[in-house]
Every structure is written in structure tokens, then in C-alpha cells.
Amino acid sequence: MEIKDNAFARQFETTVPEGLLTVEYSFQEKKIFLTKINTPENFDNQEVLDTLLKNILELSTEKKFRVVPIHPKIVAFFKKNPKYKELLPPGIRI
User: Fold this and answer.
1) CA distance linking residue 12 with residue 24, whole number of Å
2) pTM recorded for the entire structure
3) What is the spatial distance between Cα 94 and Cα 88, in angstroms, rounded to a whole number?
4) Is the pLDDT of residue 10 over 90?
5) How do strand 4-6 and strand 11-16 relate by DSSP bridges?
6) Lowest CB count within 10 Å: 22, 46, 76, 86, which one?
């Protein structure tokens, strides 16, 4: 999966057969807030979305960012994948 960090639009992007799949973000003090998921019409592939989120979290790990999930689907991803909870800032529990 090829992921583009579109810094101008503040979103990670990947192309899926249905169109463009994006995860919007914002930065604040070494934290990345994952605020919104935009899916193309008729997109319903949780596996692809999970892969995108895993790749984003790996990038965050490399850059030593803490991750604050805002969008409910991203919070659900953290609940299903407890190994990523170490990326949460101190005091944030999911």
C-alpha cells in the first residue's frame, strides 16, 4: 500500500479501487491527532482501512510522535490492537 503524506491538506492518502481514502490529522507538540477518515462512496473494506492505520502508526513511531485518536473508527482500531496503545500520550486511555 502506497501512502502519501499530503502536508498541505493535512491528510494521509492512499488510492483504493473506489477512489481516494484519507485520514486527516493535525499536529501539536510532538502529537499527531487523527481527526477524520474520508472514504470513497461504496467503500466498505475494513481490512484496507486497518492496513492504512497500521502504516500511519508505524510512521508515527519512526518520527517519535504520540498519537491521539479522535475519530470513532480510529479509537475502535486502538481497542482491537492494544499493541499500539503505547503510542498514546500519558493520561489518554481507550
Assistant:
1) 6
2) 0.90
3) 9
4) yes
5) antiparallel
6) 86
Treating both helix axes as pointing N-terminal to C-terminal, what angle do 46-62 and 72-80 enclose, rounded to 10 degrees?
Answer: 80
Q: What is the pLDDT of residues 51-89, one digit of tens each?
A: 999 999 999 999 999 999 999 999 999 999 999 999 999
Residue type, 92: I
Cα gap 4→91, rounded to integer Å? 30
The phi, psi pair for 78, rounded to 5°, reads -65, -40
Instruction: Name every residue whose Cβ is closer than 8 Å to that of residue 75 and which is 6 or more positions away in sequence.
Output: 69, 94
CB 69 within 8 A of CB 89: no
What count of Cα atoms within 13 Å lies in the side-chain half-sphere of residue 59?
A: 13
Task: Report the first-to-last Cα separation within the chain, whole angstroms.
Answer: 27
Q: How many whole angstroms separate alpha carbon 68 and alpha carbon 55?
A: 15
Element (H, E) at 57: helix 46-62
